[in-house]
Write a structure and sequence with these properties.
heterodimer; A: about 900 residues; mainly beta; six-stranded mixed β-sheet; five-stranded antiparallel β-sheet; about 5% helix; about 50% strand; B: about 160 residues; three-stranded antiparallel β-sheet; 12 strands; about 45% strand
Chain lengths: ~900, ~160
């Protein structure tokens, strides 16, 4: 419950101060003031994230307005029931009437003044042109040497220029005609008009001058010094004399049982407290033998002053102070009364006025008694004591006396790339409204890259300069009032870990810029931007354990990964990788976070983000394993590096195990012919297309039981080849045909390479036709050279009998090359020699075993016009091929390179 | 009861720090502020003139239009405007939203209450008096909107001041 009291009191105090502020601020806005307005909004999206927005700023320039006030006023009747002032005079005397003129406009202005006279009610032989108006420069109510004439002879004259709100004293002086007689009166006033706006006029202000044959008491109040600071004293000196021709007789103050002329002053009040300024020291008066009187606190000042409850004893908060003479003041006798008051600490700056009075009884039984004579209004200026304080939220006065500069509020930890808001409270402990500037002091220790944003208490609206010095301020702050601001420290994403970092904020009075106060907003420690990458775990956080994926050579594996921003500031991460030479790693964003690279996600990325603080995104690292990669475990690693802080990165180390992948290729399949007892050579290649080195044994199966012998490229007989992965070697095989073999025999040799260790194998098939003579065949293709898929190739076989015997039953056999399709109807007989009477093409769809197949368009799934089923074409010649005969144009057919 | 309420608010107001990263800015809700000088013609009609210049005692109407420019709905909208320095709020001039409320601060935006705002004042003799705040004490106005704003949804609220 103690807390309750603690918080309640400041609020009550604040409420009280606001009332004080309202009265102080009720002043006209100066011309040229910029009224600035900017609104703000906070809102949420449907996910509950909070955002803010500020509007544009609108600015209104305050234009000048003009006004004038002359006090005291009369009561308005003609003649006025209550004149502005009344003086009794003797003929031939000079009278002085004091007025105060105030510039009530909002801009500098001068004022035209001239005297006016109520001729209808003035019985004295005097005119307005007889009145001289003086500017009472020192405000002491007396025309001093050197104080200027404003108006003479009734001609208007100017005072000014005067600042808005400023007040000057003027004195109207004129000589009473010597011939005037008691009972004559004059009603004389003053009119003032604004020079800035001639329609702004204050007129009348009629005072009354009575010609008497009696006492004439003057009353002049002086206040010194003109400028006084709280804590110092004002000395009031009230003086005058009896310029009349009869005595000013005493009044009887019943409360103290004394009779004399009562000289008194209702003490000026401190508007902030409502209390009279305290009397300092002992008042003194003359003529001697008088008595100092005090009107103690709580007593009324209503009614005639001799009826007040005066006391001989001073008390706290005395309302009035006086001096009662011992008896009458006779003609030519002077009086004075002097006392001091102390300006309370904290009293608002401004002009403090005061009038004193005296009460006496004249010698005319027909007039109302007592006669009250009121002095001029003596003013002093309460000087400005600036005292802005700034401190932690709710504690503007924090810190060590006398400077209160060492107060600190701290945030223990903040992240790079974020901002920290400090609330600072500013209080005006000075005695005048102050536009307290807020300045980032040079003692701050914020590194380069930080920024400081000053905001109003709503945390959204920027703090701007409401004055003219270009420095942001809190706006006019009444004495005692407080205001909160938000100091936002924006920490750059690149900030390295460290601290503390101080924003030293200086509150500076604009009333006196030398007067300032400091507070420190401290970030004790900054955590730098950082990175976290790991293997996909399907949820929050990540899996930092190494993951292995198996892969065959020539394919790829996908590593799903999590990239986490472990700091609070939004960050983007660049991605990099380390993999074996020749491997490639490509990153993709796994936008749906399912750990799989989906069709819509195949867009390579080099970085991922922005990732909000503490949030996670998923990526896929696709690792391409080249063909021929050796079996074994290969390290791969993936790294995410913060762009906020390039020194911050994280790496996940994984592995790819390349599978054992044995493979061999024995190619191509070939065909040829020879005569009985002849030999034929076929040249092949054996390739280790796997990733394991091996020795491949060469073997064969002959359909006729014949013998094949393997040779290397240097013609050395071999039985095996040893190949590392990817290695290719040439193998030549020789078929020896026994003598006496039946002409037309077809030999099919199946050649096999078999890995000794891996046991993988591949075959090449050579087809050999045994012929009688020596039938020379020359095969050509058109067009020559590399051709694209879809190209059509025409194979033409020219034939000639190279032997001495006539060849009968000549058959030209050809196989459809791999990856090609036969064009239906393309078999052409060419131009045979004359002894060949007919050429008949026929087709096999089973590698030459049978020759009854009829090609058909689209056969075997080939495009229209082709037949993929055709494996072999043969041309059977009817007639004989005589020795030396040759085809003029060979037989031919067309194939198409498969494009599908 | 008034004192208790203030106590609770006081605790919040004195909290040392606002949360880290509590509000991010985006272009979702955008605000446009306009100012008009209200001049009443001889026939009693109100005319709205530009308020780039004004004299003391002139009436200025501020109109705040907030629009949802994002492609998503937004909600829990609080629109706040500090009464500008040099201006004084005119009582009853703040428009009331159809769904929501308008609130006033007399303490620089620390706390907001619907009108009338009641203050507990401590007298010199230690006793306390509850009084209602006057319009000149208003430092901030806040509109608390209950509606969810679809994309392109907008609202205009307004209030008037006079130049001090």
């Amino acid at each position: 419950m103690r807390l309750k009291t603690y918080f309640l009191l400041p609020l009550l105090l604040a409420a009280m101060l606001l009332f004080a502020a309202a009265s102080v601020l009720a002043v006209i806005t100066p011309a040229g003031t910029l009224i600035r307005n900017r609104s703000s909004a906070t809102y949420e999206d449907m996910a509950g994230n909070t955002f803010s927005s500020t509007s544009n700023e609108v600015v209104t320039v305050v234009l000048p307005v003009y006004g004038v006030s002359i006090l005291p006023d009369d009561s308005g009747e003609t003649p006025p029931v209550t004149p502005a002032a009344i003086q009794n005079v003797l003929p031939g005397m000079t009278v002085y009437f004091r007025y105060d003129l105030t510039n009530t406009g909002n801009d500098n202005d001068s004022f035209s003044l001239f005297p006016i006279l109520d001729a209808a009610n003035t019985t004295m032989a005097i005119a307005a042109s007889d009145v001289t108006i003086y500017h009472d420069l020192n405000g002491d109510g007396v025309v001093n040497v050197g104080e200027p004439v404003v108006s003479a002879g009734g001609v208007p004259g100017n005072v000014g220029p005067m600042a808005s709100g400023a007040t000057v004293s003027i004195i109207l002086a004129y000589v009473i005609p010597v011939a005037a007689t008691a009972g004559e009166v004059a009603y004389i006033g003053v009119e003032g008009a604004s020079v800035g706006d001639a329609l702004q006029i204050d007129t009348r202000n009629y005072h009354l001058t009575n010609v008497v044959n009696d006492a004439v008491m003057t009353a002049n109040l002086a206040a010194a010094p003109a400028l006084v600071l709280p804590g110092s004293q004002i000395t009031y000196s009230f003086s005058g004399s009896n310029l009349g021709n009869n005595s000013a007789n005493g009044v009887t103050v019943a409360s103290v049982a004394l009779t004399g002329v009562l000289i008194y002053d209702v003490i000026p009040v401190d508007a902030g407290t409502g209390l009279p300024l305290p009397i300092f020291g002992g008042p003194t008066g003359a003529p001697a033998a008088g008595t100092v009187l005090y009107l103690n606190a709580g007593n009324s000042t209503a009614g005639s002053p001799e009826t007040w409850n005066w006391s001989l004893v001073p008390g706290p908060d005395d309302v009035a102070v006086g001096y009662i003479t011992s008896g009458a003041i006779v003609p030519a006798q002077s009086y004075n009364f002097s006392y001091q008051v102390t300006v309370p600490l904290g009293m608002a700056a401004g002009v403090l006025g005061n009038t004193a009075s005296l009460a006496y009884i004249d010698n005319d039984a027909l007039t109302v008694d007592p006669t009250i004579v009121v002095s001029n209004n003596a003013t002093v200026t309460i000087g400005t004591v600036p005292d802005p304080l700034i401190g932690p939220s709710g504690a503007p006065g924090a810190g060590t006396p006398p400077n209160f500069d060492d107060d600190v509020q701290s945030v223990a930890v903040a992240y790079a790339g974020t901002s920290v808001d400090f609330v600072n409270t500013i209080r005006n402990d000075g005695n005048a409204t102050d536009q307290v500037n807020i300045i980032l002091d040079g003692a701050s220790t914020l590194p380069a890259g930080w920024s400081v944003i000053l905001l109003q208490s709503d945390g959204v609206t920027p703090l701007v300069d409401t004055g003219v010095d270009g420095i942001p301020d809190v706006g006019p702050l009444a004495p005692g009032a407080t205001v909160d601001i938000v100091v936002r420290l924006v920490i750059p994403g690149s900030q390295a870990a460290g601290g503390p970092f101080d924003a030293v904020m200086r509150a500076q009075s604009t009333n006196d810029p030398v007067v300032t106060n400091l507070t420190t907003d401290r970030v004790s420690s900054v955590l730098a931007a950082s990175a976290d990458i790991g293997n996909y775990n399907g949820g929050a956080g990540t899996n930092d354990a190494s993951v292995n994926l198996n892969s065959n050579p020539g394919t790829f594996v996908d590593f799903p990964l999590d990239v986490i921003n472990p700091s609070a500031g939004t960050d983007t991460y660049t991605l990099s990788s380390v993999a074996p030479a020749g491997w490639t790693v490509t990153f993709y964003e796994d936008t749906n976070g399912n750990g799989v690279l989906d069709a819509g996600e195949v867009v390579p990325i080099g970085s991922v983000g922005p990732i909000a603080g503490f949030a996670e995104l998923n990526i896929i690292a696709r690792v391409d394993v080249p063909a021929g990669s050796l079996a074994g475990v290969n390290p791969v690693s993936f790294t995410a590096t913060s762009t906020n802080n390039g020194a911050a990165s994280d790496t996940i180390a994984d592995t790819v195990t390349v599978n054992s992948f044995p493979a061999v290729d024995f190619a191509p399949d070939l065909s040829g012919n020879t005569t009985p007892g002849g030999t034929v050579f076929y040249t092949h290649t054996v390739t280790n297309t796997g990733n394991i080195a091996d020795t491949f044994t060469l073997s064969y199966v002959s359909s006729q039981g014949w013998t094949y012998v393997f040779y290397d490229i240097l013609n050395n007989p071999i039985t095996d080849v040893t190949l590392i992965p990817g290695e290719v070697t040439t193998v030549v095989v020789q078929l020896s045909v026994p003598a006496g073999v039946t002409i037309g025999t077809v030999e099919t040799g199946t050649l096999t390479a078999t890995g000794n260790v891996t046991l993988v194998s591949d075959d090449a098939i050579d087809t050999t036709v045994i012929i009688a003579g020596v039938l020379g065949l020359a095969k050509s293709v058109n067009p020559l050279g590399d051709q694209p898929p879809g190209a059509e190739l025409t194979y033409t076989t020219d034939y000639q009998n190279l032997g001495a015997a006539t060849l009968t039953t000549v058959v030209v056999l050809d196989a459809i090359p791999a990856f090609t399709q036969f064009r239906v109807g393309s078999a052409a007989n060419g131009t045979p020699p004359a002894a060949i009477t007919a050429v008949t093409p026929s087709y096999s769809n089973d590698g030459g075993t049978t020759w009854v197949y009829a090609p058909a368009s689209g056969g075997g799934g080939a495009p229209a016009g082709f037949d993929a089923n055709v494996t072999n074409v043969r041309f059977v010649m009817t007639g004989t091929l005589l020795a030396g005969d040759a085809s003029t144009v060979g037989v031919s057919f067309i194939v198409r390179i498969i494009a599908e | 009861m008034g004192a208790k309420r203030f106590y609770a608010v006081g605790v919040l107001a004195l909290a040392l720090l606002v949360p880290l990263g509590s509000a991010a800015s985006d272009a979702g809700l955008t605000g446009n502020l306009e100012a008009f000088r209200v001049v009443i013609s001889e026939d009693g009609k109100e005319n709205f003139l530009p308020a780039d210049r004004a004299r003391p005692k002139d009436i200025i109407e501020y109109r705040l239009t907030y629009r949802n420019n994002s492609s998503d709905a937004v909600r829990n909208i609080f629109i706040t405007d500090p009464i500008p320095s040099g201006a004084e709020y005119i009582e009853e001039s703040a428009t009331r939203p159809d769904r929501g409320r308008v609130e006033f601060s007399i303490d620089g935006g620390r706390t907001f209450r619907e009108w009338p705002v009641v203050i507990t004042r401590q007298n010199p003799d230690g006793t306390k008096t509850q009084i209602e705040a006057t319009p000149d004490m208003v430092t901030h106005i806040r509109w608390v909107l209950s509606d969810t704003f679809a994309p392109t949804g907008e609202i205009t609220v307004s209030y008037r001041t006079f130049v001090k």
